[in-house]
């Protein structure tokens, strides 16, 4: 699945539509805003970050997973730049 897409492929589509409407000076429908929000909240990194707010026994696991994801993403970025 391409980076930036949620499980249903809606994330990028909703983002593009918001940008198209905004650049044309058109109002952004509430349903489109909700679709964008839902798509972002389905991302694994976002879910893990939200789990850090909740506390509880799974907080450390979520922190480790999120740290690994960020470190891996940073390593990949350095490889592409290098």
Provide the descriptors you would attach to this structure in a database record:
mainly alpha, 73% helix
Description:
This protein has helices at 10-23, 30-41, 44-54, 59-81. By secondary structure, the protein is an all-alpha fold. Residues 1-7 have low confidence and may be disordered.
Q: Topology, please?
A:
Elements: H1 10-23, H2 30-41, H3 44-54, H4 59-81
Helix pairs in contact: 1-2, 3-4
Sheet-strand content, in percent, reads: under 5%
What class do helices, strands and sheet pairing give? mainly alpha
Give the topology string: H per helix, E per strand.
HHHH
Globally, the shape reads flat
Can you summarize the main beta sheet?
none
Count of DSSP strands: 0
User: Span between N and C termini?
Assistant: 25 Å
Low-confidence stretches: 1-7
Tally of individual helices: 4
Proportion of residues in helical segments = over 70%
- Indicate the mean pLDDT: 84
Radius of gyration using CA atoms only: 16 Å
Question: What would a concise description of this structure say?
Answer:
The protein is built from four helices and no strands. The N terminus is likely disordered.
